[in-house]
Protein backbone atom coordinates (compact mmCIF):
# COMPACT_ATOMS: atom_id res chain seq x y z
CA UNK A 1 0.00 0.00 0.00
CA UNK A 2 1.28 3.48 -0.81
CA UNK A 3 0.53 7.14 -0.12
CA UNK A 4 1.15 7.91 -3.79
CA UNK A 5 0.55 5.36 -6.56
CA UNK A 6 2.34 5.94 -9.86
CA UNK A 7 1.13 4.36 -13.11
CA UNK A 8 3.47 4.35 -16.10
CA UNK A 9 2.57 4.59 -19.78
CA UNK A 10 3.41 2.89 -23.06
CA UNK A 11 6.70 1.28 -24.11
CA UNK A 12 8.08 0.60 -20.61
CA UNK A 13 8.37 -3.17 -21.01
CA UNK A 14 12.17 -3.08 -20.61
CA UNK A 15 11.85 -1.37 -17.22
CA UNK A 16 10.72 -2.48 -13.74
CA UNK A 17 8.83 -0.92 -10.84
CA UNK A 18 12.15 -0.12 -9.17
CA UNK A 19 13.83 1.54 -12.14
CA UNK A 20 10.75 3.62 -12.93
CA UNK A 21 10.38 4.72 -9.30
CA UNK A 22 14.02 5.81 -9.35
CA UNK A 23 13.25 7.97 -12.38
CA UNK A 24 9.87 9.36 -11.32
CA UNK A 25 10.57 10.14 -7.66
CA UNK A 26 13.24 12.85 -8.23
CA UNK A 27 10.94 14.47 -10.78
CA UNK A 28 8.00 14.30 -8.38
CA UNK A 29 10.03 15.86 -5.58
CA UNK A 30 11.43 18.43 -7.99
CA UNK A 31 7.96 19.61 -9.00
CA UNK A 32 6.95 19.97 -5.35
CA UNK A 33 10.18 21.89 -4.63
CA UNK A 34 9.63 24.13 -7.67
CA UNK A 35 6.14 24.86 -6.33
CA UNK A 36 7.65 26.04 -3.05
CA UNK A 37 7.15 23.15 -0.63
CA UNK A 38 10.75 22.01 0.10
CA UNK A 39 9.91 20.12 3.29
CA UNK A 40 7.35 17.99 1.51
CA UNK A 41 9.79 17.51 -1.37
CA UNK A 42 12.37 16.18 1.08
CA UNK A 43 9.81 13.67 2.33
CA UNK A 44 9.46 12.37 -1.21
CA UNK A 45 13.10 12.26 -2.32
CA UNK A 46 16.37 13.80 -1.20
CA UNK A 47 20.05 13.11 -2.03
CA UNK A 48 19.26 9.98 -3.99
CA UNK A 49 17.09 8.42 -1.30
CA UNK A 50 13.30 8.05 -1.06
CA UNK A 51 11.71 9.84 1.89
CA UNK A 52 9.20 8.58 4.44
CA UNK A 53 6.12 9.08 2.24
CA UNK A 54 5.49 5.76 0.55
CA UNK A 55 5.40 6.01 -3.24
CA UNK A 56 5.01 2.91 -5.41
CA UNK A 57 4.94 2.27 -9.14
CA UNK A 58 2.09 0.09 -10.36
CA UNK A 59 4.13 -1.78 -12.96
CA UNK A 60 2.45 -3.73 -15.74
CA UNK A 61 5.00 -3.35 -18.54
CA UNK A 62 6.37 -6.84 -17.92
CA UNK A 63 3.08 -8.24 -19.22
CA UNK A 64 4.10 -7.09 -22.70
CA UNK A 65 7.27 -9.19 -22.56
CA UNK A 66 5.24 -12.39 -22.34
CA UNK A 67 5.83 -14.54 -25.41
CA UNK A 68 3.48 -13.53 -28.20
CA UNK A 69 2.51 -10.25 -26.54
CA UNK A 70 4.68 -7.67 -28.30
CA UNK A 71 5.45 -6.38 -31.76
CA UNK A 72 3.15 -6.11 -34.73
CA UNK A 73 3.78 -9.37 -36.54
CA UNK A 74 1.73 -12.54 -36.81
CA UNK A 75 1.09 -12.63 -33.06
CA UNK A 76 -1.37 -9.71 -33.43
CA UNK A 77 -4.76 -10.48 -34.93
CA UNK A 78 -6.70 -8.35 -37.41
CA UNK A 79 -8.77 -6.67 -34.69
CA UNK A 80 -5.62 -5.51 -32.91
CA UNK A 81 -3.98 -4.35 -36.13
CA UNK A 82 -7.13 -2.46 -37.09
CA UNK A 83 -7.12 -0.71 -33.71
CA UNK A 84 -3.43 0.17 -34.14
CA UNK A 85 -4.22 1.68 -37.53
CA UNK A 86 -7.11 3.71 -36.09
CA UNK A 87 -4.89 5.10 -33.34
CA UNK A 88 -2.10 5.88 -35.81
CA UNK A 89 -4.58 7.76 -38.00
CA UNK A 90 -5.78 9.71 -34.93
CA UNK A 91 -2.22 10.66 -34.00
CA UNK A 92 -1.56 11.75 -37.60
CA UNK A 93 -4.64 13.95 -37.53
CA UNK A 94 -3.45 15.44 -34.24
CA UNK A 95 -0.02 16.11 -35.77
CA UNK A 96 -1.59 18.08 -38.62
CA UNK A 97 -3.00 20.54 -36.07
CA UNK A 98 -0.64 20.38 -33.12
CA UNK A 99 2.84 19.19 -34.14
CA UNK A 100 5.38 21.80 -33.01
CA UNK A 101 7.63 21.03 -36.00
CA UNK A 102 6.15 22.47 -39.20
CA UNK A 103 7.85 19.70 -41.18
CA UNK A 104 5.89 17.15 -39.15
CA UNK A 105 2.66 19.01 -39.87
CA UNK A 106 3.41 18.90 -43.59
CA UNK A 107 4.40 15.23 -43.48
CA UNK A 108 1.29 14.27 -41.51
CA UNK A 109 -0.90 16.22 -43.93
CA UNK A 110 0.71 14.53 -46.93
CA UNK A 111 0.96 10.98 -45.58
CA UNK A 112 -2.30 11.10 -43.68
CA UNK A 113 -4.31 11.21 -46.91
CA UNK A 114 -6.16 7.89 -47.25
CA UNK A 115 -4.93 5.65 -50.12
CA UNK A 116 -7.25 4.98 -53.06
CA UNK A 117 -9.79 2.18 -52.44
CA UNK A 118 -8.13 -0.17 -54.92
CA UNK A 119 -4.63 0.24 -53.45
CA UNK A 120 -3.04 -3.02 -52.27
CA UNK A 121 -0.20 -3.01 -49.71
CA UNK A 122 2.80 -5.11 -50.69
CA UNK A 123 5.69 -6.74 -48.82
CA UNK A 124 6.53 -7.50 -45.20
CA UNK A 125 4.98 -4.25 -43.92
CA UNK A 126 1.66 -4.72 -45.68
CA UNK A 127 -0.13 -5.61 -42.45
CA UNK A 128 1.16 -2.51 -40.70
CA UNK A 129 -1.31 -0.35 -42.67
CA UNK A 130 -0.59 3.07 -44.21
CA UNK A 131 -1.30 5.33 -41.22
CA UNK A 132 1.03 3.34 -38.98
CA UNK A 133 3.82 3.44 -41.57
CA UNK A 134 3.24 7.17 -42.07
CA UNK A 135 3.46 7.84 -38.34
CA UNK A 136 7.01 6.48 -38.18
CA UNK A 137 8.08 9.20 -40.64
CA UNK A 138 7.35 12.03 -38.22
CA UNK A 139 10.37 13.63 -36.57
CA UNK A 140 8.38 13.74 -33.30
CA UNK A 141 8.60 9.95 -33.16
CA UNK A 142 12.02 9.68 -34.79
CA UNK A 143 14.50 11.97 -33.01
CA UNK A 144 17.11 9.18 -33.22
CA UNK A 145 16.27 7.84 -36.67
CA UNK A 146 13.58 5.98 -38.57
CA UNK A 147 14.51 2.51 -37.27
CA UNK A 148 13.96 3.44 -33.63
CA UNK A 149 10.80 5.36 -34.48
CA UNK A 150 9.31 2.31 -36.17
CA UNK A 151 10.19 0.13 -33.20
CA UNK A 152 8.70 2.59 -30.70
CA UNK A 153 5.51 3.25 -32.65
CA UNK A 154 4.80 -0.42 -33.26
CA UNK A 155 5.48 -1.32 -29.62
CA UNK A 156 3.38 1.57 -28.33
CA UNK A 157 0.40 0.95 -30.59
CA UNK A 158 0.46 -2.79 -30.06
CA UNK A 159 0.35 -2.29 -26.28
CA UNK A 160 -2.68 -0.02 -26.54
CA UNK A 161 -4.33 -2.57 -28.83
CA UNK A 162 -3.58 -5.47 -26.51
CA UNK A 163 -4.91 -3.59 -23.49
CA UNK A 164 -8.27 -3.02 -25.16
CA UNK A 165 -8.61 -6.44 -26.78
CA UNK A 166 -7.04 -8.83 -24.28
CA UNK A 167 -8.98 -9.06 -21.01
CA UNK A 168 -6.10 -10.83 -19.25
CA UNK A 169 -3.74 -7.94 -20.02
CA UNK A 170 -6.40 -5.43 -18.96
CA UNK A 171 -7.07 -7.19 -15.67
CA UNK A 172 -3.36 -7.63 -14.92
CA UNK A 173 -2.62 -3.93 -15.46
CA UNK A 174 -5.53 -2.77 -13.31
CA UNK A 175 -4.68 -5.23 -10.57
CA UNK A 176 -1.22 -3.67 -10.22
CA UNK A 177 -2.92 -0.35 -9.41
CA UNK A 178 -5.55 -1.77 -7.08
CA UNK A 179 -2.99 -3.80 -5.12
CA UNK A 180 -1.19 -0.57 -4.14
CA UNK A 181 -4.28 1.34 -2.97
CA UNK A 182 -5.09 1.25 0.73
CA UNK A 183 -6.30 3.41 3.63
CA UNK A 184 -3.23 5.67 3.45
CA UNK A 185 -3.39 6.30 -0.32
CA UNK A 186 -4.03 9.95 -1.19
CA UNK A 187 -2.97 10.38 -4.80
CA UNK A 188 -2.75 8.40 -8.05
CA UNK A 189 -0.48 9.85 -10.75
CA UNK A 190 -0.84 8.26 -14.17
CA UNK A 191 0.93 8.90 -17.47
CA UNK A 192 -0.12 8.09 -21.04
CA UNK A 193 -1.73 4.61 -21.31
CA UNK A 194 -1.37 4.45 -17.52
CA UNK A 195 -4.10 7.07 -17.25
CA UNK A 196 -6.47 4.64 -18.97
CA UNK A 197 -5.42 1.84 -16.63
CA UNK A 198 -5.81 4.06 -13.56
CA UNK A 199 -9.16 5.47 -14.68
CA UNK A 200 -10.68 2.02 -15.15
CA UNK A 201 -9.09 0.65 -11.97
CA UNK A 202 -10.44 3.53 -9.87
CA UNK A 203 -13.96 2.57 -10.89
CA UNK A 204 -13.32 -0.64 -8.94
CA UNK A 205 -12.43 0.87 -5.56
CA UNK A 206 -14.32 2.92 -2.99
CA UNK A 207 -11.20 4.39 -1.39
CA UNK A 208 -11.17 8.19 -1.95
CA UNK A 209 -8.12 9.48 -3.86
CA UNK A 210 -7.01 12.44 -5.93
CA UNK A 211 -6.19 11.68 -9.56
CA UNK A 212 -3.53 13.38 -11.68
CA UNK A 213 -3.32 12.36 -15.34
CA UNK A 214 -0.46 13.43 -17.64
CA UNK A 215 -0.30 13.11 -21.41
CA UNK A 216 -3.54 11.17 -21.34
CA UNK A 217 -5.31 9.75 -24.42
CA UNK A 218 -8.58 9.29 -22.46
CA UNK A 219 -10.43 11.79 -24.65
CA UNK A 220 -9.59 10.13 -27.99
CA UNK A 221 -12.94 9.23 -29.51
CA UNK A 222 -13.52 5.73 -30.94
CA UNK A 223 -9.99 4.47 -30.30
CA UNK A 224 -9.92 4.96 -26.52
CA UNK A 225 -12.94 6.78 -25.11
CA UNK A 226 -15.59 4.55 -26.66
CA UNK A 227 -13.77 1.43 -25.40
CA UNK A 228 -13.54 2.46 -21.75
CA UNK A 229 -15.22 0.46 -19.00
CA UNK A 230 -17.70 1.02 -17.50
CA UNK A 231 -19.99 2.82 -19.92
CA UNK A 232 -21.23 5.49 -19.95
CA UNK A 233 -18.00 7.17 -18.87
CA UNK A 234 -18.03 9.31 -15.73
CA UNK A 235 -15.52 10.44 -13.15
CA UNK A 236 -14.89 7.41 -10.89
CA UNK A 237 -16.87 7.62 -7.67
CA UNK A 238 -13.68 7.26 -5.59
CA UNK A 239 -11.99 10.30 -7.19
CA UNK A 240 -12.18 13.39 -4.96
CA UNK A 241 -10.54 15.68 -7.53
CA UNK A 242 -9.03 15.17 -10.97
CA UNK A 243 -6.35 17.30 -12.62
CA UNK A 244 -5.25 16.66 -16.20
CA UNK A 245 -1.99 17.92 -17.72
CA UNK A 246 -1.48 18.05 -21.49
CA UNK A 247 1.40 19.63 -23.36
CA UNK A 248 0.05 21.28 -26.51
CA UNK A 249 2.67 19.40 -28.58
CA UNK A 250 1.99 16.00 -26.99
CA UNK A 251 0.70 13.99 -29.96
CA UNK A 252 -0.08 10.92 -27.84
CA UNK A 253 -2.56 12.84 -25.70
CA UNK A 254 -5.97 14.21 -26.57
CA UNK A 255 -5.93 17.97 -27.08
CA UNK A 256 -9.29 18.26 -25.41
CA UNK A 257 -10.87 19.53 -22.23
CA UNK A 258 -11.95 16.28 -20.61
CA UNK A 259 -14.86 17.88 -18.75
CA UNK A 260 -17.38 17.20 -21.51
CA UNK A 261 -16.26 13.57 -21.77
CA UNK A 262 -16.29 12.71 -18.07
CA UNK A 263 -19.25 14.18 -16.19
CA UNK A 264 -19.40 13.81 -12.41
CA UNK A 265 -20.39 10.46 -10.99
CA UNK A 266 -24.17 10.44 -10.42
CA UNK A 267 -24.81 12.47 -7.29
CA UNK A 268 -21.25 13.85 -7.26
CA UNK A 269 -19.68 17.15 -8.27
CA UNK A 270 -16.09 16.24 -9.25
CA UNK A 271 -15.12 16.98 -12.86
CA UNK A 272 -11.70 16.79 -14.54
CA UNK A 273 -9.79 20.08 -14.75
CA UNK A 274 -7.31 20.41 -17.63
CA UNK A 275 -4.57 22.91 -16.85
CA UNK A 276 -4.11 25.51 -19.66
CA UNK A 277 -0.88 26.38 -21.48
CA UNK A 278 1.26 23.46 -20.32
CA UNK A 279 4.69 23.35 -21.99
CA UNK A 280 7.26 20.54 -21.71
CA UNK A 281 9.64 22.07 -24.25
CA UNK A 282 11.45 19.56 -26.46
CA UNK A 283 10.05 16.53 -24.56
CA UNK A 284 6.28 16.98 -24.79
CA UNK A 285 5.29 13.42 -23.76
CA UNK A 286 8.08 12.69 -21.27
CA UNK A 287 6.80 11.76 -17.81
CA UNK A 288 9.62 13.55 -15.97
CA UNK A 289 8.97 16.74 -17.92
CA UNK A 290 5.40 16.65 -16.66
CA UNK A 291 6.41 15.89 -13.07
CA UNK A 292 9.00 18.63 -12.51
CA UNK A 293 6.70 21.55 -13.30
CA UNK A 294 5.60 23.81 -10.44
CA UNK A 295 1.97 23.37 -11.57
CA UNK A 296 2.35 19.64 -11.00
CA UNK A 297 4.03 20.27 -7.67
CA UNK A 298 1.10 22.42 -6.57
CA UNK A 299 -1.39 19.68 -7.43
CA UNK A 300 0.67 17.11 -5.52
CA UNK A 301 1.12 19.43 -2.53
CA UNK A 302 -2.60 20.11 -2.24
CA UNK A 303 -3.41 16.39 -2.52
CA UNK A 304 -0.96 15.64 0.30
CA UNK A 305 -2.01 18.57 2.49
CA UNK A 306 -2.62 16.21 5.41
CA UNK A 307 1.13 15.51 5.58
CA UNK A 308 2.30 19.15 5.64
Task: Write a structural description.
The protein has 308 residues and is of the alpha/beta class. The chain has helices spanning 17-35, 38-44, 78-98, 102-111, 130-135, 146-165, 167-178, 193-202, 287-291, 294-303; strands at residues 4-7, 45-46, 49-50, 55-58, 187-191, 209-214, 239-245, 272-274. The strands form two sheets. Strands 4-1-5-6-7-8 form a six-stranded parallel sheet, with helices on both faces. A two-stranded antiparallel ribbon has the order 2-3. The protein is globular. 50% of the residues are buried. Mean pLDDT is 86; it is low at 68-74 and 115-128.
What order do the helices and strands come in, and which of them pair?
Layout lengths: L3 E4 L9 H19 L2 H7 E2 L2 E2 L4 E4 L19 H21 L3 H10 L18 H6 L10 H20 L1 H12 L8 E5 L1 H10 L6 E6 L24 E7 L26 E3 L12 H5 L2 H10 L5
Parallel strand pairs: 1-4, 1-5, 5-6, 6-7, 7-8
Antiparallel strand pairs: 2-3
Amino acid sequence: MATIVLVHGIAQEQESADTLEARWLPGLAGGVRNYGAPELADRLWRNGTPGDLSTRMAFYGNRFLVEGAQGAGTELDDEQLDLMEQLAATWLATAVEHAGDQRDRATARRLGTPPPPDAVAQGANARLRPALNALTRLRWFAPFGFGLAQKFVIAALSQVARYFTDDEVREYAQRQVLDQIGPETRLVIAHSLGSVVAYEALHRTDHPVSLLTMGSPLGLRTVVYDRLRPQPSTVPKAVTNWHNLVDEDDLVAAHLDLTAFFPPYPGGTVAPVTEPHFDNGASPHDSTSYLVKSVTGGIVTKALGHFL
